Write the structure tokens for this entry.
Amino acid sequence: MPAVKHASDPILVAEGVQRHFGGVAAVDVELLEVPRGQITALIGPNGAGKTTLFNCLTGFDSANAGKWSFDGEPMQNVDRHRVARRGMVRTFQLTRVLGRLTVMENMLLGARQSGEKFSRSLFKPLWKADYDEATERAWGLLKRFKLDTKADDHAASLSGGQRKLLEMARALMTQPKLLMLDEPMAGVNPALVQSLLSHITDLRDEGLSILFVEHDMHVVKEISDWVVVMAEGRVVAEGESGPTLANPAVIDAYLGAHHDVDLRAIIREREAGRA
Amino acid sequence: MHHRPRARSRAALAVLTLLASLLIPSLAATTASASTDAEWGFIPRLVDADGEPVEGALVTVANADGELAETTTGENGNGDTLAVPDEGDYVLTFDTSAIDASFDGGDVYAVARTLGEANTLPVQRVIVTLEETANDGEVALGEDGEIDTNTSTGSSTGSASVTFDQFLQQLASGLNLGIVLTLATLGLGLVFATTGLTNFAHGEQVTIGALAAYVGTTLMSLPLALAAVFAAGVGAVAGWAQNAAIWKPLRKRGVAIVSAMIASIGIALMLRFTFAAFFGSTTKRVSLEQSERWSLGPVAFPASTWIGAAAAAVVVGLVGWWLMRSSTGRAARAVAANRALASATGVNVEKTISSIWIVSGAITALSGVLFALLNGVSWDMGFKALLLIFAAMLLGGPGTARGALAGGLAVGLLTEILVLWLPSDMKYVGALAILIVVLMVRPQGIFGRAERVG
Amino acid sequence: MALLDALLAAGQQILSPVTAAFALAAIGLNIHFGYTGLINFGQAGFVAVGAYGFALSVVWLELPIWLAILIAFAAAAVFAILLGIPTLRLRGDYLAIVTIAAAEIIRYTVNSSLFDDVTGGAQGITNNESQGSDYSSWLNQFNPLGEGRIELGPWVFTGTALWWSIVTWVIVGIVTLLVWLLMRSPWGLTLRGVREDPDAMASLGKFDSGIKLQALILGGVIGAMAGILYVLPSAVSPIDYNSRMTFNLFTIVILGGAATILGPIVGSIVFWTVLVLSEAMITWLVDIGILANFADAPQLRFALVGLALALLIVFRPQGILGNKKEMSFARS
């Protein structure tokens, strides 16, 4: 195995991130780089620590050690809502739509409006301009994701795939720099998968950086530009999508064939290569 | 409140607190000062240490000429106005012996008041608080028209003079309250651990036990021990029935935990005020048998308290053994750990939960009997204990006998030992403050394990 | 005739300042529970903080009325912050236990003989001019109705009582209008977002704990306002601020319709009307012998409150005015 491959111009760089539960290291990542303006897939077998890493980086969980920077600014120990405000916006593996609010209300909560300040909220003239702008943007995104006919429905009434779409559209309302999608295809009707994928590539083409966790190798092959492979909490391989996914050790690791033996071998190799 | 040597040593003291002198009935602020032609008199009011009204006390007013008038306190603790002829010094006597309550002794509270000097209002309001076990104080009118000094404030002071014997007695009282709390805490924790329900109606399960024991001793003339067994049986049936009629259907409907918790409040109110309607607002003694007092060094309790505490400890041990060793206990632990997994591995979840409710109902009712031995039977006794039980459960962590014991003893000791320095109407504050601090610092409890998060 | 008397009494109850004060406290609780999803079981504590904060400021500290009102509000805000900062991250049912415990601590403390000199202990604060413990005569100066007897259809009021009713209900109306303005704003939407899912809100850059704290403070200050209204026409009595008050308020909120603007008002009116009517019915049942064996039959009306609360939360969580979809607490 070759040593670490560096992404050119990374938007997110994480070093030495560790998260322990009891004595078990769920995440122990020496280096993670997410290239700017590309689609990065974070893959690995179940329990590899992908979601835990996601949680640590976005402030939803506290890492025991490590530092990381986003767009040049340090981001460890930043509150989770501030992480989002700086442009690192995540979705959830199990969708978290605000079920008893309407689809449009969900979208509006993605925007930052002056009327969300208590001091301005009493007087509509103080917040109407922001509100109108947010509503207009929301309509645009709802149309793009074909949710505009559902705008006044409660989000709880949407299908699983529609919820995934809504969550993504809502995250876009925050105008993120890096969109972090945790298994965006999980539980989505196969008919919708293709449209979700094209939305993701379109967003990349518009200049957005995307990091997504995925299980489905076909999906990863189809849309990712860069791949990071995790196993047992560590990054075991990364690189451009084609060559990395062709690496037999990665395939073994991912498919789980003799993965106990092979992964440790990979990790040893990497450490030797680094030293 | 049970009898303690400290109280006995001050048997001559009238343990009472006089509160501010007068109160004009509400809404009359603008009119009362205008009415100058009213007669002189007193409105007596009797409340217990918690400020709850005490009904059925005979209040008389007397001066040097003898007794002038009498009234009986009603449901709200107030008596009728006791009219007196003129300004002057009077003695009000609150005779509580007619109340079939838990405090011992001759129960006469005497209060001396001067009417007309301190204020110009014709009708004075007098509050007497029962803060401690009863006294048999005969009170003479002091020269200054105030009560004699040795009758003034028995329990609200004491920080300067806590003796080691008093401390030991309170320690023992704390252990006793602790073991009683342990039973109720275990009952609450078992249900919480297996079903996730924060049951605000758990206090009423305590009351059911006490009421059943009261019915057993009075209507059925059972000896106290048999009445306790009867109460545990009633509690078991009540627990089973509550689960079958309410909680099982709600689980089937998929009612959210928060809704179930609010429903439990509704059920608690329904039961509590039904008890109040049946039973009235008085406190009654669970058993009229005079219990011999047993002493161990400076610590003295009625025999029933010693036996009750021992029985409670044995029952806690048995339930702990049942949880660890029996097949139902193992099933219950599996359900508590992971309900879906337990179900998948062949545990009959609903049957297990039903068994848990039966055991919970029985031991909680038993704790009710023991609470009744401590404080008497009243309609809201369970609710008063509920927050202490919550505190104990959260302190020890829910669902294990060991945790319930640790939490129960900690809360019991804290509550009783604080009485050495705080007036008894503040005794629960310490436990509640600890409850808040524990939840803030370690939501999984002091003795519970840290759960894996995320 | 008995029925007519009961109906008249119920009508009188609707107008009473107590009904208005409960409506106001329920408006505060609705902001906590209905809009933000905070299970505050200590609203009676906020009401007590308002009542005591106001009355003690006037009677004990001898401060001007406007300052006393501000102090009552500030005390409620401080209480909310003390409770809120450490607990708003806790599970919902833990917040419930912390708030009920904190409210009980307040009640035990003001009730205790330990602070007799200040709070009046179990007797409370008498609101009596000749005792120097008056805190409401200032408002009577503005009473245009006089103190005499006023007949409104079949109802008879004293001028003073009617004046109190008008003042308290006008305040309820003003607060309702303010809450409507707040809840239609983007700020109001963030409360409902937090109710649905604080984590999702955080992922969108909203400071979920801060939003909860703002809601706790606002609802608590409105609760304190209710406390002032509650004691203005009468006296301060510590026993009123028990958890039964909180649970009555919960019943009112759920009955009227949680997360609706008018729900707390409708809830309070229906609640008190039913309470008065059921008391009359129970008295009648005792008279004709059906409930004669009960030691204290009128207590049954509170048992009915409990039954109503349990049935409502399970079978009609949206109450009278609410939206079934928005208020079905049963979430998968």
User: Anything to note?
Assistant: Chain B touches chain A through three residues (CB under 8 Å). The two ends of chain B are 46 Å apart (CA to CA). Residues 1-38, 117-121, 132-160, 450-454 of chain B have pLDDT under 50 and may be disordered. The first helix of chain B runs from residue 5 to 9.
